[in-house]
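User: hey, got a sec? need Acyl-[acyl-carrier-protein] desaturase folded
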Amino acid sequence: MSLHNIRLEVMLTLEKNIETFVDKFLIAPEKIWQPTDFLPNSQSEDFLEEVKEIRGLSKEMNDDFWVVLVGDTITEEALPTYESWLLDVQGISQHQGENGGQDNGWAKWIRSWTGEENRHGDVLNKYLYLSGRVNMREVEITTQHLISDGFDIGTARDPYKNFVYTSFQELATYVSHNNVAKIARKNGHKMLAKMSKIIAGDEMRHHLAYTEFVRQIFQHDPSEMMLAFQHMMKHKIVMPAMHLRHSGEDKGSLFDQFSVVAQRAGVYTGFDYVDIIKKLNATWEIDKITGLTAEAEKARDYLMKLPERMYRITERIVIPDTKYNFKWMNPLT
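Assistant: Yep! Here you go:
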């Protein structure tokens, strides 16, 4: 049987439990938080006072913090790109049946997951707008570019590689939002801290779902899953932020500057990247997986040694204190 057919068979096997995954890892729209739960109520008499308070607190936070929050928001708002990419993955079908009728179980998962993720960009965008610290038109232009440019995450239509990517990316966004929450709380920005913390909670729940998919694939097809994991780590996970750009600039022109600012702010660092690899190795217990081919054994050896090797490289990186001019930022008045 070809690798293509084996992957399809494994996806069909996992799909039999999709309702269980949906019930365990996702929450119904009526029960989960919605953006308005964390924003000033525009129908309240206190609305303008609450907005003034947000604007006042926002002036206390430095530009680096807001640049990172803008990057996080744009990453969340590029959701149409992720959904269209995942709906094209092998084993995920939007048209099950002879007459193109119903989605298959995986498509239901992707749509439900997208529905949850959609709230993140929604609430953060509104908060940025109310803060008064950000040039929203430039933010909106960058968001539109990111969606219309598209980006290649290096997985093709391979479900194994895609689930490694989502397992990594969901944990990375958890780390980023959680660190934003800590910084906001430390600076008395309680509403933003609460909002970021609960977004981080969603990301962790989604991370647990995707790591569970990979864990189950390891049980059915260990060697190919190990090789897919190695492939993604060798080529590095391509973050959506790698494609950020201002109006009139080239695709990806902002990434190096944004990366420096994120590390300088302590929101997402090279050490976080290494830590995520270590966590994935431990979560999937790759040291205990049996029945591997000789090639997959080599892949496992590479993955086990990778965090230490990357940690040593990361230790040598010097973060510059250069002041960058992001068009997203409004000057303080």
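Quick note: The radius of gyration is 21 Å. Let me know if you need anything else on Acyl-[acyl-carrier-protein] desaturase.
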